[in-house]
User: Fold Helix-turn-helix domain-containing protein from Actinospica durhamensis.
Amino acid sequence: MVKHIETPAHAERFEELKRVRAAAIEHARAARTLSQERRRIIDSLLAEGFSQADVARELGVTRQAIQKMMAAG
Assistant:
């Protein structure tokens, strides 16, 4: 059975759902871009001689977290 939009309130809720969905998609896109940028910066710091521990200390995370970020590529 298919339920149809019955009231203006229902239509408004569906519009809200569409807006939230579009925002979530845009945020996911931005997160991917930022993740790539973060990896690029970490790569450059490591290439300059900083250790994973150095980077981790500055970010307030564990060295293992940095190691996992880099492995995820």
Remarks:
- Residues 65 and 73 are 13 Å apart (CA to CA).
- The helical segments are 8-47, 52-59, 63-72.
- The mean pLDDT is 93.
